[in-house]
Amino acid sequence: MKKKILVVEDERTIADILVFNLEREGYEAASAGDGPAGLKMALEGAPDLILLDVMLPEMDGFEVLRQVRAQSQVPVIMLTAREEESDKVDALEMGADDYITKPFSMRELMARVKANMRRTVSAEAEAPAAAKEGKLVISPEQSAVYKNGKPLDLSVREYDILNYLSKTPGRVVTREELMEKVWGYEYYGDLRAVDVAIRRLREKVEDEPAQPKYIITKRGMGYYYPEQP
Fold first, then answer.
1. Can you say how many angstroms the Cα of residue 130 is from the centroid of all Cα atoms in its chain?
2. Which residue, 8, 32, 125, 160, is most buried by CB atoms nearer than 10 A?
């Protein structure tokens, strides 16, 4: 079954080009030209990923994102012509998975789409035996993380961060290394994007995010996964 991608973009020429190229890459693509229409399609159409422009008529992309995140964890890539780093970090803080600044190449966009496409695990999927012992268990075979025997609702980025840190327990990983190894492509963002992703991950993984057991901060250096969490 083809993955469905929703393009929310008010410039018709850009929207048509995006839809054409996404369909050429094997995706099913649909578009909306304003905020309210995009929100309706996002909530009712069950897309696998959303490309969301920031500057939209009637309702801007940030408000669309806020309302989508209240009901769904679908991956969202923000499309922005703004250069201000604060806008980009704000989008990540609000729950965007990524952003790309206009103008961009189709090759770069497709790399971002592929990197952020959600890996899903059914809630009824059989959990690894260790996951039933109340521990946090990372299952590379399923690209999933279990806690108390149930799969956590992690984005691709969140899973990849946790998996990367857990491969070398006790080793401090810098934000630069995480950006290089986890994001996996040339990223024009602020390294604060890593901190935002870590904070969102902790909210899902930790019992008490302010006192983490699994994703520990080494002040001034980076993050690490403990040897015996």
1. 27
2. 8
